[in-house]
Here is the input.
Amino acid sequence: MTHQPRKRFGQNFLHDPSVIARIHAAIAAQSGERLVEIGPGQGAITAGLLTAAGELDVIELDRDLIEPLRQRFSNSALRIHNSDALQFDLRTLVNADEQLRVIGNLPYNISTPLMFHFLDQADRIIDLHLMLQKEVVDRIVAAPGSKVYGRLSVMVQSRCQASCLFRIGAGAFTPAPKVESAFLRLRPLRPLPYPIDNPQLHFHLVAAAFGQRRKTLRNSLSAFVTPEHFAATGIDPKLRAENLDVESYARLANAVNAAD
Here is the structure.
């Protein structure tokens, strides 16, 4: 297939056979599993997924890629959905008793909103294998105390087990992006180890803490958290945002919510 990558779609097509093989090995798709690939592009990963699982749903926004994909995989059980993944409800692809595995090379400019859109449907998802900008993956998997541990770390790790599987150099793509990529595995946690009573409050509390990360929690969270909340949870108000682990943020948000 010949197709000029489009900047407005954030297209960087994977072409390196060794990277493609590592991705297939990491996913380890099995026959009969329900897989959905986000942004199949020219089908670099698609072919192996189809061979392993026997069927595949793909979501592709660029209409010019639809017909080449359809022709290339005309003799297979490939179902193509010409849609914006940010608007697509993955739950429509499976019955109530089925779950999906999600794979995608996500455009850098919308990778975070896309990831959270999928996580909002986590009740139907077994795992997600995503190619993202390495810097974003580093932030997602970061541990408390790290310089890159932040809001994204807390929000994703509150809901998933996150693992960086391997790095992917820019030369593996056409055109080569200006940044390095990484392959991320997310496994939604069931049940959540740290239940959050009010997700919206939790989101705003975490955002406020890291929005002023040089300040102590006493100061950055003054609009949310009272001295009584800190005392009730045993959390030191003199700590800074990066010193608090995922469980502590959930506990603090629940204490604030219970007092309202």
